[in-house]
Amino acid sequence: MKVVLGPASVELAERVSVSMGCISVPVVLRVFPDGESYVRLEKGDVLSGEDVVVIQTTCPPMQDGKLFQLAFMVDAVKRAGACRVTAVVPYLAYSRQDKLFLSGEGISVETVVNMLMAIGVDSLVTVNIHSEHVLSKFSFPVRSVSAISLLADYFVARGYRGAYALAPDKGAMYIAKEAQGVLGGGVGYLSKVRDRYTGQTVQSGEGLNVEGETVIIFDDIISTGGTIVGAVEILKDLGAKHVFAACVHPLLIGDAAKRMLDAGVEEIVGTDSIPGPYSKVSLSPLISKILKVA
Ligand code: R5P
């Protein structure tokens, strides 16, 4: 197996290739003045007849550009004679548009995955896809692995065994339960209702008992930080002693991190699904494990 170091995930891909003892294939990336991307595999000649893994996240900024870079790398890998291509896309752009919320919409995540399949990807691995129900819709293997226990391990290693695992909405309760399995404390969720036209949300902590607790909010994605800021305000009103925020995909758009810290979050912990200052947990062990059994 050979690992192609997608320009958006170089460090993670290097970690995976070292942990698997595989040859890594660097990629030259140029972005032209008009915004178009150019990619070239540096060791294209070693790929003939090989199983090749291309690791490239598709987070903002320029998620469309990163998607096209991924597509160009897959095309190059195929042209170099690879027999099988697995795309590892830790953050899969557009995964939140996973059903028709309003008439006239499309299902963007299906378009993205179908596009990758059409280019020649034989299987796709992603991490904590927003809704797992989309996984069964494709005619090639699409798997989502969960990094929640790695995030929970981070907190256990820092002495927070027994902390309360909170989901910021009911849909994320399966995530909080997974974290609870590691932390061993309480578990619960806030209610969150989103207006489909304006995107505005209303949160409530009705029935939640977190007085005196250390609460870790677990979510798949933190984008603007609005969900976490709203949650912290409710948790503080309910008497929570400490509040932490953990997520798999720390998009952290604009001043999201500052807003959360100002609201009282003691620490933000994300994974290197999206490289950045809060990407404290590496997905490398998880991805290496799934590739070994693939
Ligand atoms: C929504 O269902 C997701 O799981 C996240 O809760 C959401 O994307 C977070 O967005 P924001 O940080 O902008 O509130």
Structure description:
The structure is a single chain. With about 290 residues, the chain is of the alpha/beta class. It has helices at about 10-20, 65-80, 110-120, 150-155, 175-185, 225-235, 255-265, 285-294; strands at about 1-5, 25, 25-30, 35-40, 50-55, 85-90, 125, 140-145, 165, 185-190, 190-195, 200-205, 215-220, 240-250, 270, 280. The protein contains eight helices and 16 strands. The strands form four sheets. The chain has a six-stranded parallel beta sheet with strand order 2-1-5-6-7-8, sandwiched between helices. The protein has a six-stranded parallel beta sheet with strand order 10-9-13-14-15-16. The chain has a two-stranded antiparallel ribbon with strand order 3-4. β13 (about 215-220), α6 (about 225-235) and β14 (about 240-250) form a beta-alpha-beta unit. The mean pLDDT is about 95. It binds ribose-5-phosphate. Ribose-5-phosphate binds near residues 172, 220, 225, 226 and 227.
Secondary-structure element string = EHEEEEHEHEEHEHEEEEHEHEEH
What hetero molecules are in the model? ribose-5-phosphate
Low-confidence stretches: none
Approximate helicity band: 25-40%
Strand order of the largest sheet: 2-1-5-6-7-8
Please, what is the oligomeric state? single chain
Which band does the percent of strand residues land in? Answer: 25-35%
Shape: globular
The structural class is alpha/beta
Q: How many angstroms does the end-to-end distance come to? A: 11 Å
| Average of per-residue pLDDT values | 96
Strand segment count:
16
If you compute it from the alpha carbons, what radius of gyration comes out, rounded to the nearest whole angstrom? 20 Å
Biggest sheet character: 6 strands, parallel
Number of helices: 8
